[in-house]
Amino acid sequence: xxxxxxxxxxxxxxxxxxxxxxxxxxxxxxxTILALGTEKVIKLxxxxxxTRIRTLxxxxxxxxxxxxxxxxTILAxxxxxxxxxxxxxx
Length: 90
Prior knowledge:
Low-confidence stretches: none
Strand content: over 45%
Largest sheet: 4 strands, antiparallel
CATH class: Mainly Beta
CATH topology: Thrombin, subunit H
């Protein structure tokens, strides 16, 4: 995952190596945490320095979508197995 400045196209930050296809992503309301969902895993990244905070082992099938609660303390993820999981975010 790479962050680019829109005004001039400069690369601002890369968040580690992502070897699996990203199927869903969500940015926390305060912009500090990025959640990237692959087929069976959600990785949480600190936007400010590109550090991976946590890896959540999730589903047997693909992740279809994710969203943070308005206060950023809960991440909801949905799967194509028709389930939704709620994750407490530190």
